[in-house]
Each structure stands twice: as structure tokens, then as C-alpha cells.
Amino acid sequence: MLKRALDSLWFEWLLAIRLLLEGRAQSLLIISGIGVGVCVIVFLTALIGGLQKQIIDRTLGTQAHIRVRPPEELARPLRTEADAEAGLISQVDQRAQRLRALDQWQRIEQSLLAADDITAVSPLASGPALARRGAASRSVVILGIEPERYTRIVPVQDSLQEGRFAIVGNDIAIGRQLATELGARLGDRLRLDAGDGRADVFTIVGIFELGVRDIDQRFVYTALKPAQALLDLPGGVSSLDLRVTEIFAAEPIAQRISARLGVNAESWMTLNRNVLDALSAQSMSTNLIKFFVGLSAAFGIASVLAVSVVQRGREIGILRAMGTGRGQVLRVFLIQGGVVGLLGSALGALGGAGLIGAWSAAGLSRSGRGSFELAVSPELFIGATLLATVVGMLAAVAPARRAAKLDPVEAMRGG
Fold first, then answer.
1. Which of 56, 386, 75, 55 lies closest to 250 in space, CA to CA?
2. Per-residue pLDDT tens over the stretch 30-56
3. Which of these, 11, 37, 137, lies nearest to 345 by C-alpha position?
4. Start-to-end C-alpha separation, the chain
5. Is 116 left (phi over 0), alpha (psi -120 to 50) or beta?
6. Phi, psi torsion values for 49, nearest 5 degrees
7. Which is higher by pLDDT, 319 or 388?
8. Contact by Cβ (8 Å): 112, 153
């Protein structure tokens, strides 16, 4: 039984390859068409994937995945005497959100560190101040941090232009744009004034450039304790910055933290809706390209095999008369579709790899600040090959069914 099945399978493959070779011109044409389509899919998928990775890296390279802050202060109802007598609220006074410390932040920190999907937690004392150097002054944002822990959230050290990010005592690191506006250099002293008489003098030990103008123009990193003193947060922090294992799970994790701990947890996904919209649009465009390329390949394969059925009607009739079953004829044409799809996808994968190599060789991935590397992985080529092969077999279904239903007598008579 097994030998008979293997012989049948060998016969089907041999016949399918022979039919493809007989129609060599048609076969080469459709294989080339599929190759071009797969080449486009591979290159554009790598291109858009690299662009998306760059967007995400730039977005998360300057902010935490999740920021935990104190809950917002509630609005106060304002009522007149008449309203009070009637039990009505005439007006709601929205309270200004003042800088406050996160209540029992050490307990919250320990609770967050115990979660499996949170990889790093960094306390942050952040608030507004005025930076002065000589006659120049600028409005800045003080970020009091513990450098060893904060750099696990935002890798500022990777964007250092000068100096170091080992901030201790009254050391600070400032952005390139702020340094230019204040005429400051490494080793210069800067006075930070947070108001109400809270001010101190700091030494610039690092200058960074994160590539976001507002950050490079306003952020001043200090050690945690000096920032707490300047911002009137003795022993407290204004927020906790978190890093999670899966960046696209940040929003549900933030919602869970808010519900469980009674704090205000905001994810990068909430704060960057426009970025997510752009990523969704790019993914949709990639999927549409794959769909239409696959559709065009399917129509091409189906049309070639349909013509093949018509041209070889007499041969199919003879095979049926000789005892070849309908199932065997069906499988012969399905094999043809799969082989055409496989060869076309292999050709396209090679072409896509060539385009990717040309992109890198031309230095386009390193041509400027906005440049990016293509997202290349084995899964990209395997997926494109499987897609084309499956599309080839599916496209062959209709012609194969038609061939299998041919009546031997009618087919030979028509031939």
C-alpha cells in the first residue's frame, strides 16, 4: 500500500514538472512575475519595518514606557446660598494641579518591582525652574534622578556629546541647545532657581543631544537629593518611571497599576497617539501591498494553468482513459501551482536580498540623522516564500478542479 502511494506521488510530481517544462515560456513568465512581487514585498516590508523601529526607538529613547504620578486633585463645587438651599451645584472650580510628592512611593516602588512584566523602576523628582548664567536665563525642567537606575529607562548616556552622565552632588547634565543658548560649556557653573528662595549653584559635567529640540533646550538632569531640596519635595518624588518587557502592552499594564494602586499611570501609548496612528497606517499599507501583490500573482497563476488545461485537454483525456484518477489529475495541477509559487518566491527572495544589500552598500542607512537600518530577519524571507507558495496552490484550485472534471471521451474528441 505504501509503495503504491509513493509511486502515485512520484508520477504526479513527474507529470507536473513535465507539463511546466513543456510550457516553458509561460512558466518562466509567471515565475518572473511572482519573483518581482515577492521582491517588492521583501524590500518594502524591511523598509517599513526599519522605519517603524526607528520611530519607536526615537520615541522611547526620550521617555519612560509608563510614568506613575500622584492622582489628580479633584475639582471643588462652588455653590451659592440659593443653590445650597436647593441642593444644586451652580459651578465647578477646576483645581490647579500643583507639584506634589507621590505618597508612600517606596511602597509603590517595591510593589511595581515585584511584577514580572516590569523590568526597571526609577524615582524622579521633576519640576520647573529658571537656569541662570551671567545675564542669560532660560526656563528649564529639573529632573532629579538616580543615574544608574534612570539610564535603564532612558539611555541618556548614549546621546552624550561631551563629559559624563555620572551625576553626583551638585553636578548636572544639560542639553546641547540649552548650553548654546546660555553660552555654557563643560565645567561652567549654572544657577538653578525654583522660586520661593530655593536656589543653588551647579556644575555642568555632561552635555547631551537626544534629538528632540524641546528636551535638548529645557531638560536639566541633577542628582535626586538636590532636586528634592530645590522643588520642596523632602524625601519625596514627583513620579516613578517604568520600563516594561513588552512595549505594546504598556497601556493595559498602566491601567492595571492605576486600578490596583490608586495612582495616575500613563503609558507612552497614551502620550503618543499620533505615533501609534502613524505606525498603524504603515502596517496597513504593508498589508495592502502584500494583499494586492498576492492577488495579482494568484490571477497570473490561475490564468496560466487555465490555458494549460485547455491546451492539454487531449492529453488529460488520454490520462483519464488510461486509469489516472480525478484526484491524481487534481493534485498534478495543485503541484504545478505550488512549484511555480515556490520558484517565483525563491527568485523574489534573492532579488529582495539584493535590494537590501544595495541599500546598505550605498550607505543609505547611514546617510544622515534621520537614516535607519532596514529590519531584516530570516522570518521575512521564510514568510514571503510561504505566502507565494500557498497563493500558488490556492490559485491552482479552480483550474485543477476543471481538469479533474474533464470527461475522457469529450476531452479526446475535443483534442
1. 56
2. 888 888 888 988 888 888 888 888 888
3. 37
4. 35
5. alpha
6. -60, -40
7. 388
8. no
Handedness of CA 365, 370, 376, 377 (dihedral sign): positive
Each residue's pLDDT tens digit, 62-89: 899 999 999 876 555 555 555 555 555 5
- Reported residue count of the chain is 415
Name residue 372's amino acid. F
Kind and range of the H or E run holding 243: strand 239-244
Answer whether 365's CB lies under 8 Å from 49's CB. no
The pLDDT of residue 8 is 66
Q: What is the largest CA-CA distance in the chain?
A: 105
Q: Please state whether 74 falls in left (phi above 0), alpha (psi between -120 and 50) or beta.
A: beta
For the entire predicted model, the pTM comes to 0.72
Asked if 294 contacts 387 with a C-beta cutoff of 8 angstroms, the reply is yes
Q: Which three cell numbers stand for residue 145?
A: 534622578
Q: What is the C-alpha R_g of the chain?
A: 33
Burial-class residue 58 by CB neighbours within 10 Å (0-12, 13-18, 19+).
Answer: middle
CB atoms within 10 A of CB 13: 15
Q: Residues 356, 378, 158, 139: is their CA dihedral positive or negative?
A: positive
Half-sphere exposure of 233 (CA within 13 A, CB side): 28
Residue 402 CA to residue 330 CA, distance in Å, equals 8
Q: Are strands 239-244 and 171-175 parallel, antiparallel or unpaired?
A: unpaired
Nearest to 394 by CA among 330, 344, 340, 334: 334
Residues whose CB falls within 8 Å of the CB of residue 365, separated by 6 or more in sequence, listed in order: 50, 359, 371, 372, 373, 374
Comparing CA positions, the residue from 206, 85, 70 lying closest to residue 150 is 206
Residue 413 scores a pLDDT above 70: no
HSE-CB for 355 with a 13 A CA cutoff: 19
pLDDT tens digits, residue range 124-178?
999 999 999 988 999 999 999 999 999 999 999 989 999 999 899 999 999 999 9
Half-sphere exposure for 276 (CA within 13 Å, toward CB): 12
